[in-house]
């Protein structure tokens, strides 16, 4: 039996999920650290910058929306089960 080379499907899917988590959690963590380090700057923001700041503060929620997309792109059985679920509805 020959050893497999390269990444398998599961490894690719888990790598993609981890990358999505890192990309969506990093802005949240950076803004939280900024807010803890410089609270006076955050409190002095006007309406538009504060709205943008709060929007990016919720970037970690994108991970929940992106996970099903990653699963559907990488896993055939997940797509099949989603189709079956949607047909029942």
Automatic annotation (TrEMBL):
The chain crosses the membrane at residues 12-31, 51-74. Its main location: membrane. Coiled coil: none annotated. GO terms for cellular component: membrane. The keyword Protease does not apply. Residues 1-71 form the G-protein coupled receptors family 1 profile domain. SUPFAM superfamilies: Family A G protein-coupled receptor-like (SSF81321). It is found in: Membrane. Keywords: Membrane, Transmembrane, Transmembrane helix. This is G-protein coupled receptors family 1 profile domain-containing protein. It comes from Lymnaea stagnalis (Great pond snail).
């Amino acid at each position: 039996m020959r050893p497999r080379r390269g990444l398998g499907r599961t490894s690719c899917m888990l790598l993609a999920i981890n990358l999505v988590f890192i990309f969506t959690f990093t802005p949240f963590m950076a803004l939280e650290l900024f807010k803890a380090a410089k609270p006076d700057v955050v409190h002095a923001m006007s309406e538009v910058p504060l709205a943008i700041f709060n929007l990016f503060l919720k970037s970690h929620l994108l991970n929940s929306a992106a996970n099903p997309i990653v699963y559907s792109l990488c896993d055939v059985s997940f797509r099949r089960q989603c189709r079956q679920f949607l047909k029942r509805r």
